[in-house]
Each structure stands twice: as C-alpha cells, then as structure tokens.
Design goal:
The relative contact order is 0.14. α3 packs antiparallel against α8 and α7 packs antiparallel against α8. With about 350 residues, the protein is an all-alpha fold. The longest helix is centred in the first third of the chain and has 68 residues. The chain is elongated, with a radius of gyration of 35 Å. The two termini are about 65 Å apart.
C-alpha cells in the first residue's frame, strides 16, 4: 500500500506560471494589466456614447431651429407680398375705370393685370410653402399630426440684425474645436484603441483570454492591427477638425454678409415704396401714366420683399449654427466634454 505524506505531496505541488496567473485572475483580476485596460476601455466607450447622444441632441436642435427660421422667413414674405398684392388690385381697379372712361388708352389695364396675376400666383405658392414648412417642422419635432404646428412666434429678446456686430472666424474656431462632440467622441475612441494596443501586449498573461492571444506570431499581428486602428481614428479626427473649420468659415461669412446686405435692402425697400406711392398718385385722368412703369415698379418692389426675408433668414440661420458650434445660446445646456491636448497619443 502506498502511503502518502501530506508534506511531501504539498512540496510536489510546485506552482507554474499559468496556475499563478489563474489564481490572480480569479481572486484579484485587476492585478492583470489587460483587465484594468479593459475597464478603462469600457469607461471611454461610455463617454463616446454620451458624446453621440449629445451630438444627436445638438444637431436635431439646430435642424429644428433652422426650419423655424425658414418658416418665419416665408411667413414674412407671404404677409408683405399679400399686402402689396391688395394694393396692386386696387390700382388695377382704378386703371380699369379710367380705361373704361376713355382717359387711358385701350389695353392699358392689361399691363396691370399681368403683374397682378403673377403676384397672385406668387402668394399661392408662398401659402403652399408655409404649409409645407409647418408640416416639416411638425415632423422634425416628433408630431404624428402634420398639421400640429399652427403658428410660430420668435423670442422677443432675439438679437436684432440691426444691432449685431461682425464676427471674426479666428475667435470662434478655437471654442468650436474645444467643445466639438465629434472630436471628443473620436478622442475617447482613440483612447480605446490605444488601450487595446497595450492590452495585446499583456493578454497572453490572462488564462481567460482568447487562445489567439497566446504569445507568438499572432501577438505582433494583433498589435499592428490595433495601431492601424489608432492611425485611422487620428486621420478621421483631422477630417472632422477640417469640417468644423469649414462650417465656422461658412456661417461666419454668412453672418457678416447678412450684416452688409441688411442696410442696403432696407434702403432699397424704402426707395421702391416711394416709387410705388408715386405710381399710385398718378392714377388720375390725363396724368399720362404708363402702366408699363407701374408694372416694373411692382416687380422691383416684390423682389425687394423677397430679398429682405432671405437676408434676415440667412442671418438667423448663421447665428443658430454659430451658437451650435460654440454650444452657446439654446445649446448652452448640453454638456460638453473638454479633452486635454495631452490625452492623445
């Protein structure tokens, strides 16, 4: 019979490297480098997901705000041209009466009728456009009823274009880059990829790791793949940074051009208003009025009203996007994540 001496048996149980690592992995897993790297990866991935959510909120807000300004601009144009149309219809009626009385030559009314008909079609098109604007806005805000939006009122404390000042792109860009969710998201993903590269160095120590991570030729291959992922993410970051810079330039230019155009269109509108009033004043017998001139004045006046609304809308959209890029104004409540410059490897 074989006798077993407990002390001899214990002495023969010489622990090998894998058994030691197995105990460490079971009892104190974070003593293994790949385990705490994985934990850090999880945290970085969670922050990247939060950036994605913030990015969706901010972009959706900018889209809705832009739609609201488009609606406001179209309603402004509709109201002003509808008012001008009513004045044109009254003028047309006066011309018809003067022509019927023989004080205007036959066919004079046709010149007025052409422009009045065109303006009537413009008003009908604007009415349809306003309806579509409201339906698009309702859909963007999550309403199932396309007619959920009945009216729009803008903030009474809105910054007026007449009091706005020109802006410098160089003062906006650093803030936009520092607060960009897109860049923060990529930075967190770069950290994940960096940690995965480091993890490949140590995964062979973990007995619970994939067999493909055993120390050997596959280790170098996996490390190279991880480094390629880091390089691709850094390239993507540069592309995003360039895209943000382009947006800053675009909307800053749009803002500044709107400020330059606003006083010009205001003067133009006043001039056309005076021209129209002079035309109406000449709707009298034997005035020698040419309704060709009246038609031209109405066309110019209508075009000015379209331009006025377009310039104001462009300014409002530019302001909205600049606020979005800098996370200010309506977007100041969205949590931004600032990533230190030395965090990138």
């Amino acid at each position: 019979m074989l006798e077993l001496n407990l002390s001899d048996a214990l002495a023969n149980l010489t622990p090998n490297l894998l058994s030691i690592l197995g105990c460490v992995g079971d009892l104190a897993p974070f003593l293994l480098p790949n385990r705490w790297l994985q934990a850090q990866e999880t945290q970085e991935q969670a922050q990247a997901q939060q950036d994605t959510l913030n990015l969706m909120h901010a972009d959706l807000g900018a889209e809705v705000e832009g739609m609201a300004y488009a609606l406001a601009g179209d309603e402004m144009t509709l109201n002003s041209i509808s008012k001008l149309l009513q004045e044109a219809i009254l003028a047309q009626t006066q011309v018809e009466e003067l022509e019927a009385a023989g004080t205007f030559s036959p066919g004079t009314t046709d010149n007025m009728k052409v422009i009045v008909d065109q303006m009537t079609l413009d008003v009908a098109g604007l009415q349809l456009l306003v309806t579509q604007d409201k339906q698009n806005l309702a859909g963007a805000m999550g309403f199932h009823n396309p007619d959920a939006i009945r009216d729009l009122s803008l903030d009474s404390n809105e910054l007026l274009i007449t009091s706005a000042k020109p802006i410098d792109q160089s003062t906006i860009l650093p803030v936009a880059l520092n607060r960009a969710f897109e860049l923060s998201q990529v930075d967190h993903l770069v950290e994940v990829a960096n940690n995965q590269t480091k993890e490949n160095y140590f995964s062979w120590l973990d007995p619970q790791a994939s067999p493909s991570m055993d120390l050997g030729f596959s280790t170098g291959e996996n490390i190279n793949i991880s480094k390629d992922n880091v390089a691709m993410l850094l390239t993507r970051r540069e592309q995003l940074q360039a895209a943000i810079a382009t947006k800053v330039d675009t909307y800053a230019d749009q803002w500044n051009e709107s400020l330059k155009a606003w006083p010009i269109i205001q003067d133009n509108l006043l001039a056309n208003q005076r021209r129209w009033q002079r035309q109406v004043a000449q709707l009298t017998p034997n005035s020698g009025l040419s309704t060709f001139d009246t038609e031209a004045v109405l066309q110019d006046y209508e075009a000015s009203l379209f331009r006025q609304a377009s310039i104001l809308t462009n300014f409002r959209v530019a302001r909205s996007m600049i606020d979005r890029l800098q996370l200010q104004g309506f977007y100041s409540t969205i949590q931004s994540v600032t990533v230190p410059a030395n965090k990138l490897k």
